[in-house]
Amino acid sequence: xxxxxxxxxxxxxxxxxxxxxxxxxxxxxxxxxxxxxRKHDPPWKHEMPDDIDGSMxxxxxxxxxxxxxx
Length: 70
Known about the structure:
The protein has 70 residues and is mainly α. It has a domain at 12-40. The protein contains 2 helices and no strands. The longest helix is centred in the middle third of the chain and has 25 residues, at 14-38. It starts with a helix and ends in a 32-residue tail after the last helix. The mean pLDDT is 79. The chain crosses the membrane at residues 12-33. Residues 44-70 are annotated as: Disordered. Keywords: Membrane, Transmembrane, Transmembrane helix.
């Protein structure tokens, strides 16, 4: 019984445990909400796939005019 009382005496108070719980739950909630909102972003805010080159020129035009002549 003395060992149990000593272990209980070493535990932090309820307010500290509650604060630690909130430190984990609140960021998880913000992440969950922002992740759900990101799914409904307009198409221009999404990242481009890797298989498409990064050119923003219309189809059929070339990037030759923008090459650096060294």
